[in-house]
Specification:
This protein is α+β, with helices and mostly antiparallel strands. It has 27 helices and 9 strands. Helices cover 50% and strands 9% of the residues. Among the domains are: 61 residues, Helix Hairpins (Orthogonal Bundle); 27 residues; 164 residues, Sec63 N-terminal domain-like domain (Sec63 N-terminal domain-like fold), CATH 1.10.3380. The N and C termini lie far apart (91 Å). The longest helix is centred in the C-terminal third of the chain and has 29 residues.
Length: 719
Amino acid sequence: MALVVLAQKLNKEQLSTFQPCKNKWARLERKDPGETIKQLLIKLAIILGWVLFCYVAYKTSQYDYEYAKFDPYEILQVEVGASPAVVKSAYRKLSLIYHPDKKTGDEKTFMKITRAHQALTDETARRNWEMYGNPDGPEAISFGIALPSWIVEKENSIWVLGLYALLFMVALPVSVGTWWYRSIRYSGDQVLLDTTQMYYYFFHKTPHMAIKRVLMILGASAEFHRRNNQEIQERRSDNTEVPQLMKRLPQLNEKNKEKPLCFMYSIKARSLLHAHLTRLDLPQSTLEEDRCAVIKKCPALIQEMVVCVSQLIMLAHAGRLSRMPSLVTLEGCMKLSAMVVQGLWECKSSLLQLPHITDENLKYFSSKRYQIRSLEQLARLKEEDRRACLHHLDDNQYNDLVAALGGMPYVDMSIKYEVVDDEATTVYTAGAIVTVTVALARRDLSVLFANEKEVCNEILENGDVIAEEEEKVPETKKKSLPWQKNKGKRANNKKGSKKPVKKEIEDKKKIVQVATSKAIVKVKEEDSESCSEDEADDEVELCESEEGDAEAEEKSANNDSSEPEKDDDQLEKLQSDVAMRRQRLLEGKSQFSHSVYCPFYPEDKQEYWWAYITDRKQQMLLTAPYHITNLVEHEEIQLKFTAPFKPGFYTFAVCLRSDSYFGFDQMKDIKMDVKEAAEIPTEHPQWEISDDEDEEDKNSGGSESEFATDDDDEDSGKD
């Protein structure tokens, strides 16, 4: 269990022995030294803002609210409607106390007393107080702006006008124009429109494109030109270092004459991409910095490539384009993303994504005892076997490898497909809109760090239920069915063969199905022992039909009571789904999932996925790739496509592809029996009038309905 805890935490201290990780963390710590000062200034500005807010709030609390509400009776401490004599008497008493000449005097309070006395004794003041709440009459509120004196002076009027003209006629239009010019150059994903236009051109020109050709187009992106990206540097040392690097890279195809593939910035970016995928050591102060600037731009550009290729495919399906990019081109772009993130060619082993593993160490995984070819197989090994397989690593290196392996994804994908708009959701007609719901559950690969028996028990949670159902079947001798005669012999011929865990689950399910079918056959044999082995198929079908009739009768009996409840449940479920989707749209799409272990990628990379549906037989893309950027634990997406217009049996594939790792892609088939669509009735059944209804209308004496119109009267007259 110590390895499980170790694998759940992936940080720079645990991977300190792997040199690429050390280089990456050191680069991230020293990156942009002015960023620390900028954050400090922002924090200081926030603190000063809060201090100013607290000062204003304090000053506001000191405001004398007694002036805001003027009540002369309360000030003189007399009852409402008191006589003038009582008011004067109260005024004298209070004046003797609060007069400024007295020892206990208070000028502020004495002014209030005088004002209150005037409001109750003077008729004009009393009328003003009753009408406006103020003895002095209505108050006039005026606002003004305190300006420096030098602005309003006549001698400085020319300079003031010049300053206003500079601000509002020069600075403001220039800033707005600059912002507008920069914004219109980029798409919604912050990719230059020139780059997007180039992608459309090359992918339409070459429908079937290899990965190396895609890599050339990626290197020609306008983001790698100095004029569009200030992080790209053009040094004098490039005249010597870049040609030397090109000599070390085969199949660079630097003599290509296509524009912009032949430009110098494109050749340099392509050389850096090849060096990154080959994991070559570059000069730290020059080409290594350029490599980091190029590589960190690639994931967004590759996502733009995927969007462009998928849009071209959809336009070709709609008949708007003559050439359609192939499915190989689209998946090649997706593979290129994982190649760039991991710094690895596609032909290499996925085990090279782990730290301290090189081409020379792969021989330890291909021994006769282990035969490890994937990361999942390595994770499923027992702890002692894994340590024995990696005996060439010391303890620190082994801990680094286990920590990196345990943080990689382990995704379970389940699929449900239906026709949502139809009453029969599982009946697929030609041209129907099929909705495929893909549910993803993501865990770390560290869940497989256990003994083989424990892993089987975790995966086969439903195995006990299947075994119990199998035990309930009578263990008496059952007559074998015709299609099961050779099953036992074939199974016995494969002794000692180890089956995968998922296959064992499927086999157990098949055993339960076969056992139930045998039990049905046995019941029929007890009724009539004269049935032969050749008639077993007919008996099974007969039993199934009888059971189906009985179930249909029970359903029809309970139909009236169950249908309203089902409708209510479906309505509640539909409303909850709509509410959840609306909430997701309002919240927006998150861009944070899990950090990818990628020591050769210069920045932190989040783990994203693509989900799409294809027809592998026709090599066609049925749905645009859905970019999943928020798969933290669970995520559910919906993919919709149109069923084939020709009836028949079809098999489609739901694909899940990672943009950051090799070896974790999944593909599951969905089998669909497409039936011919029902004909649309030419006449509405409610508009059809039977002969019996016509006779009843004639016998009723031709009485007109109160809902009849003038047109109906005219039609009846014609008849």
